[in-house]
């Protein structure tokens, strides 16, 4: 049976750069050509608040985890780290609890989504990473899924001008047997599904 793949643009899709849009749409075409059952998936409305919730949870916990370093060694921390800590200190316990409550609500909705799909494919970065080693790219487009997904893996799609490429992120309720998180791309999965399909037709 062909795998049921949901192409999930997430609620932050409007931030995606042209290279991410092209990669994402190209992936859907290649998977369809390989015989997969590929359809677009729309996440329930509560997922629209997950990006902000994930950010609030992350910075709150960073600030809490690094409270000693912030108090004693703040001058030795990077500017990015101190900004994150300060953002976390601005999140109230009530806001933190509300963010965690939203993630639990949305996570409880995932089984219904996976009644229709075996795997969700979502972009994992807004676009190509900037030059240098300071950052790997803006992950905003995947923050909502990051907040609730359990099993996931990233597949590098292409490289250009020595930059880390935009990536596709696959999300499933279990680890994909054909395409593990160690680096096999979705195209590898697609090729295997296509070969398996041809083999079954011969049999």
Structure description:
There is one protein chain. The chain is α/β, with parallel strands linked by helices. It has one domain (4-202): Alpha-Beta Complex (Amidase signature (AS) enzymes). It contains eight helices and five strands. It has helices spanning 18-33, 50-65, 67-73, 79-89, 93-107, 110-113, 143-148, 186-202, and strands at 4-8, 37-41, 119-123, 151-156, 167-172. Strands 2-1-3-5-4 form a five-stranded mixed sheet, with helices on one face. The relative contact order is 0.19. The model is unreliable at 159-167, 173-197 and 199-203 (pLDDT under 50).
Keywords:
203 residues, Amidase signature (AS) enzymes, five-stranded mixed beta sheet, 8 helices, 5 strands, globular
Walk me through the topology.
Elements: E1 4-8, H1 18-33, E2 37-41, H2 50-65, H3 67-73, H4 79-89, H5 93-107, H6 110-113, E3 119-123, H7 143-148, E4 151-156, E5 167-172, H8 186-202
Parallel strand pairs: 1-2, 1-3
Antiparallel strand pairs: 3-5, 4-5
Helix pairs in contact: 2-4, 2-5
